[in-house]
# Entry
Amino acid sequence: MRSAPVSRVAAACALAAALSGAACGSDSATTTSPTTTATASTEFFAGTLSPRGDAFYSFGVTSEGTVSITLASVAAARVGPAVTSRLTVGIGVPSGFGCSTTSTVDAAPGLSAQMTAAGAKDNIYCVKVSDPGVLSGDVLFVIRIVHT
Amino acid sequence: MNATTASTLCLLLALSAPACSDSTTSPSTTASTTSPVTETFASLLAVRGNTARTFVVTSAGTITVTLTSLGSGSVTAGLAVGLPGTGVPCSPSVSVVTAAGATPQLVTSADAGSYCVQLFDNGTLREDTAFSVTIEHP
# Structure
């Protein structure tokens, strides 16, 4: 058998390779829609609470989602043991110079959220902490707020 | 190179080409057992002092803290778990005054986030004291 010239073999090889590559893939174009995921923000509300006193903190929710509130720490001093007293924690909306709560819970400090409010929308909300009558002196507190 | 050799190379090239398929092969990953994570916090606790270590919990779960050693073993100290970075070294959420031991002294549930363990002198130390704390968390 007579051999074909090298150049013709190479050309045939290149054509075959191109065709085999073109056969792969999908017939229809695929479009990928961008997905938007709301990013959770974490804020801390720290302060001093006096017996029978209260304090509140306002924050903005920029997209619909869940607000989680954790009364994370109550202590009598900057360094020392935790105070286990149950304080009243609530969520609501700012009203005048205060915070009008729509939901409250009495909670001892912990590291898991004691209050979760679903369906929070683009709005200004507030967290309020108050002493229901259990404190005998000032305490330092820290509340963690996670929201969208 | 003659034509026969070129034809042979072309055939080998064609055979080595990947077949068309709808399936995709993902790069293999080795599953790593990263949870729970165990960290050791060892240092010196000064008389009337305090010291803290921050750690990150990547998913909700249980934090277990064990003061495994403290000086000669006959002294006690305050041990706390709380939140870091709020104007104090470590804002305590739960705490206990304890001697060292093999049984966890603090066990608490926690959401994902940054936390701290703090050891503080509760007024009983007579000298700077070496300690070791083991922290296990998700």
About this structure: Residues 42 and 132 of chain B are 4 Å apart (CA to CA).
